[in-house]
Backbone:
């Protein structure tokens, strides 16, 4: 019985290391802000390191056939769209959304992900309807807990980004 306990501890430690070391570190956060002119801006806030590209990533891809009813029994591969940032972001910058809002499909859930050499920064998950409902002067942001609203004012987003970095 003791031999089994002695073997279980190293196996458990190895498993924990393997599971935690596979994902890139989260090094910041992204907010999506609606401007007064109706355009969308990505508020990029990096805590450490830097990011140099941003991707529009499909989280779920259920195709809608011609009869407009989702076919949940079939998975479709929707390719990520990748765009370089105009400059490497070390701290914070607001940039126009580098993707056409009209390219965001109504039947797919997305996220923005900024990539750096040592980690990533993420937006909230969103759909075309979420972006359409986002009013000027507000920011769609990842909610840390379900009880926290994901739509904030820009100062609230800045405060949340600073908290996430500390």
Residues:
């Amino acid at each position: 019985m003791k031999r089994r306990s002695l073997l279980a501890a190293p196996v458990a430690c190895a498993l924990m290391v393997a599971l935690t070391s596979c994902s890139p570190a989260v090094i910041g956060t992204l907010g999506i802000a609606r401007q007064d002119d109706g355009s969308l801006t990505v508020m990029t806030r990096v805590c450490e390191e830097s990011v140099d590209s941003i991707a529009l990533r499909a989280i779920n891809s259920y195709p809608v056939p011609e009869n407009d009813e989702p076919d949940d029994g079939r998975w479709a591969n929707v390719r990520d769209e990748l765009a370089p940032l105009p400059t490497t972001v070390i701290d914070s910058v607001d940039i126009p959304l580098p993707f056409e809002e009209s390219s965001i499909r109504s039947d797919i859930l997305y996220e923005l992900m900024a990539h750096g050499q040592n980690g990533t920064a993420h937006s909230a998950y969103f759909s075309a309807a979420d972006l359409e409902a986002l009013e000027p002067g507000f920011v769609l942001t990842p909610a840390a807990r379900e009880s926290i609203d994901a739509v904030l004012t820009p100062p609230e987003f800045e405060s949340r980004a600073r908290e996430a970095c500390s």
